[in-house]
Amino acid sequence: AQEKKIFMVQGPYPIIRRLLRARGWVERKAPSTGRQLEQHCGDQNRQRLQTAPSSGGARQREEEEQCDEDPHGIHDLMSYLARDQLPNFIWTNFLETVDRQLLRDDSVLNHYARVDAFTTKEGLCLSLQNLPWIEQADPNAFFPRCYRLGTRDDREAFIEDFRLTAARSLLKLALEEAGDRPVRTEQVPNSDNEEGERHISHPKHSTAQPGSPLYHELVEEALEVCKQHLGVLQHEDIDRNTPSPCRTCINWDNFLHQYYRVAHEGAGLVLTRQQRKQCQNLLQSLAEKLPQLDMEGKLNVWILKPGAESQGRGIICMTRLEEMLQLAWSCTAPSVQVGRWVVQKYVERLLTIFGTKFDIRQWFVVTDWKPLTVWFYQDCYLRFCSRPFSLHQLERARHLCNVSVQKWYKTSPDQDPRVPPDKIWSNKQFQEYLAQVGQADAWHKVLVPGMKAAILNALRSARDRVRFCKGNFELYGADFVVGENLQPWLLEINSCPTMSPSSTVTRQLCANVQRDTLCLVLDRKDNPTCSIGAFELIYKE
């Protein structure tokens, strides 16, 4: 075996193995799989070993590819000779699976330690809460508001946020009811005004009782809460001891009960012309202080996520405060440690394609943390849901774009036939679509700059907690949704993005990003001018 040419691969990465062998590298088989695979390949001319049902077809295809690459057993022989050599390069799906005794001082590994500071939902939530203390950046400009329900301070902050969002949402619903549909005006007795004030109401809901003082007072309560909140926002830099608007004298249980009736049960609203103007002015003033006012919508939908899970496990969309708090502290999800939930504002005002929600999986590589060095991959892909988008139906098939979630759902009959059958698009296809809808410049002028900025801010917020060794690197997959205004919103960052293709598009893109990653971290060391494919250096301190 040649010096500095020994590698080890753990996990489903046949392309990495093939590319390294093509470079003349020799594989040292991982201890857990080496003997089994060696026997498998040695017996290939007699009989194909059937993969156990629990292993799945992907592993069988991988093993067959490995054998087919080595028809004369040359690589197996070289691997046998290298069995006592420590690998110079290790590519593994999990850092924890690497035996530290196998590492040389100069071994290159495709992971860093303690990256859970930004690659778990809980870690990213905490890190971005601290971002304003580290950088002159506001996480609310790119990351939907997020809270860790297992900590008291976060839980109380979430309850306050939910209430304030309900108050803002009520004002939006009132304006929508008064302004977007035919309305009538009527005289409503008012103890402060003998003449009465003209009220705007909508006749569609018999349950609403348009003249009811309850609904008039509901709007007044929402206006008062939002006025107080605006006051806090305008003075928060001066006096951080300003009392919370949620500690006012309104009955929040009653307010939320009535808000639920309006937002989710079809009850109507009534408001005076004066209130209408107040709503408009107040929301306009709040928009200048709250970057998420537009995207948060008016139904107060939040998404609960287990703090350290992946692939969409345990995630659920909800709209009622008491139910969210109960779920987070119940035993209904036995795989989730009690209290380790995060709750995040759902982006209600989404860009959809053919009426369907999608998200973007965007790759990037960190090759150093001091100085922080980040490479952005210029190709990515979109993942579609199986059913049309609806905020009134919160099932996973409509709202979670993860391939591991959507593979369990058949495309619904009411899905637009233009949604791709495999539910995947390349960024090139997305760019063509944007051009067709008159947004040809949005990809390069809005979406890509927004994704780069969000990724860099996330990394900066967590870098002091990451443990790293010089020479190592890591490939990450960031997930974004896109707002109606084409702004990308970061949802999460994955430390081990899948390289198992689920479509024609991902088969090509996953192969390309693995090829280009090896060029970036291996070939470029000896030849700084070599091609690194679609990677672009976007940051080096």
Automatic annotation (TrEMBL):
One Gene Ontology molecular-function label: protein-glycine ligase activity, initiating
UniProt keyword annotation of Translocase present: no
Region (Disordered): 31-70, 181-211
Major localization listed first in the record, in broad terms: cytoplasm
Localisation per UniProt entry: Cytoplasm, Cytoskeleton, Flagellum axoneme
Composition bias, Basic and acidic residues: 37-46
Gene Ontology annotations of biological process type: cilium assembly; cilium movement
Span of the signal peptide: none
Keywords for the protein's UniProt record, in alphabetical order: ATP-binding, Cell projection, Cilium, Cytoplasm, Cytoskeleton, Flagellum, Ligase, Nucleotide-binding
Nucleotide-binding found in the keyword field: yes
GO cellular component, one term: axoneme
Superkingdom of this protein's organism: Eukaryota
Catalytic reaction equation(s): L-glutamyl-[protein] + glycine + ATP = glycyl-L-glutamyl-[protein] + ADP + phosphate + H(+)
The protein's name: TTLL3 monoglycylase
Organism field: Rhodinocichla rosea
